[in-house]
Design a protein that fits this description.
By secondary structure, this protein is of the alpha/beta class. The protein folds into two domains: 1-44 and 198-241, no CATH class; 47-196, Ribonuclease E inhibitor RraA/RraA-like (Glucose Oxidase, domain 1). The protein has seven helices and twelve strands. The strands form three sheets. Strands 1, 2, 3, 4, 6, 8, 11 and 12 form an eight-stranded mixed β-sheet that branches. The protein has a two-stranded parallel sheet with strand order 5-7. The longest helix has 22 residues, at 199-220. The protein is elongated, with a radius of gyration of 20 Å. The protein starts with a helix and ends with a helix.
Length: 241
């Protein structure tokens, strides 16, 4: 990873997942409604659905490249591979990285697929966060590790815990994530910057959106502002006043 790309990632860290989503849409030529993209397949579903929860919001957001795996938490007969296959990939991938764990057990979610021991290993190899399509345990211990996590639920136990595949595309809370996708994770969930889109372009668009939104907020929050006055300002800005 080049110094320039690290600079871009540091810039992206300044923005929330919602603004990055808006920046992707606008970089594709769409507005917030995205109607301009109907002929291009519509607004891209590059964000997680509401089944994914941010469990340690006090630890902040996370930005990084996805390192993925599929696991089972209860099935002793699943065709496992060595856990080193996953952790080697985490260790080899240039920072920042985010671990993405998908529970594919026949009883997915019934057993935990992340605890404080795994969180400690992720932290050691440079992960900035972990996203889990499944259940988590040891939340207090994970908080002590200092690693933000996202998941679908909390349970206290698990059975035979096996790694099935590593470095493969996975679907997490309705979002398809490929290895090395750039993820932005915060209280709202996870947004993925499409692999064919330059993050630097998205960053510049996010900065434009922030400037535009801050300008609007400054006007809307003025003491004594009324809807009639705000509406007139909006019309004037559109050349209709």
């Amino acid at each position: 990873m080049t110094a320039t790309s690290l600079e871009v990632i540091d810039g992206i860290k300044e923005f929330d997942s919602a603004t990055i989503f808006n920046a992707v849409v606008e970089s594709m030529g769409g507005s917030q409604g995205g109607t301009e993209l109907e002929g291009q397949g519509g607004v891209p579903i590059i964000y997680t659905d509401p089944t994914l929860h941010c469990y340690l919001p006090n630890l902040g957001s996370a930005v990084g490249y996805a390192v993925t795996c599929e696991v089972t938490a209860l099935d002793p007969d699943s065709a496992k591979i060595d856990w080193h296959d996953y952790y080697d990939k985490l260790d080899e991938t240039p920072s920042p990285v985010i671990g993405v764990i998908k529970d594919i057990d026949s009883r997915a979610g019934r057993g935990a697929v992340l605890g404080d021991g795994m969180a400690s290993t992720h932290k050691m190899v440079g992960a900035t966060g972990i996203v889990v399509d499944g259940s988590i345990r040891d939340l207090a211990g994970i908080e002590g590790v200092g690693l933000p996590v996202w998941g679908k639920g909390l349970v206290p136990g698990h059975g035979v815990f096996n790694l099935i595949r590593a470095d493969v595309p996975v679907v997490v809370a309705g979002l398809l994530i490929h290895p090395n996708d750039l993820l932005i994770c915060d209280r709202d969930g996870v947004t993925r910057i499409p692999g064919d889109m330059d993050p630097a372009v998205v960053l510049e668009q996010a900065r434009e959106i922030r400037e535009r939104e801050q300008s609007y907020m400054k006007i809307a929050r003025q003491p004594g502002m009324t809807w009639a006055r705000l509406k007139q300002i909006q019309l004037e800005m559109r050349g209709e006043g």
